[in-house]
Amino acid sequence: MIRPPHLLFCLLAALLATGAARAGETRVAVASNFLDTARELAARFEKRSGHRLLLSSASSGKLYAQIRNGAPFDLFLSADAERPQRLVEAGLADTGHLRTYAVGRLVFWAPGHPGDAGACRRHLEGLKRLAMANPRTAPYGAAAREVLEALGRDPASLRLVLGENIAQAYSFVASGGVEGGFVAAAQLARRDPPPPGCRWPVPESLHPPLRQQLVLLRRGRANPAALAFFDFLAGEEAREAIRRSGYDLP
């Protein structure tokens, strides 16, 4: 049976309309350390689902403040567990959609200083000026401060170059503005070729664990795209991408 051309056109239009209706858009707040990985995951998710993700990145503290002040986000991927929990307690997020998606690792990196991890630690102990994220707004910065104190280095006696977030701290070190600094392991793991210099992977015993939590915000409860991305991040494909990016898995 041959269908009239106008009927085929109508069927095609109906199919396209159905697909458009099913596709959605969601706004995601992403901690700076996770942005590169989030971009990779977003591209995979969009290709498979047809949904569109709008990513916004800053320090966890800054994003938290924006959400508290009414910023229109559906999901929050924080670099800590504290701020998502606060949003749940404030009634701004869903306790049933709260989980750890990655565990971050802190590294001291000195691009112009060759050597192994031991040499890198000794170099850190002699430095008077180094970079790190602002401990008041960035979980990786708070962890770096804990490390300095555990090593007997008084942060107040050092010339600390504070980045607004861990991405800016990385930039300070990579540009040569400082000899070394604390960065996220994922920032180094994703670079090809590997960045030069020495690295000291900071033992987890020197700072509280960097449990990075994801939470569905109140605005996203009725958003199919937000719910779908929340579920996608728990899948094996996403978990493997997160692991390859230099994170530990919960």
Automatic annotation (TrEMBL):
Keywords: Metal-binding, Molybdenum, Signal. Molybdate binds at S60, I166. It comes from the Bacteria. The keyword Membrane does not apply. GO terms for biological process: molybdate ion transport. One of its GO terms (molecular function) is metal ion binding. Pfam families: SBP_bac_11. Residues 1-23 form the signal peptide. CDD domains: PBP2_AvModA. The keyword Signal applies. InterPro entries: AvModA-like_subst-bd, ModA, ModA/WtpA. Belongs to the bacterial solute-binding protein ModA family. This is Molybdate ABC transporter substrate-binding protein. It comes from Thiolapillus brandeum. The lineage of its organism: Bacteria, Pseudomonadati, Pseudomonadota, Gammaproteobacteria, Chromatiales.
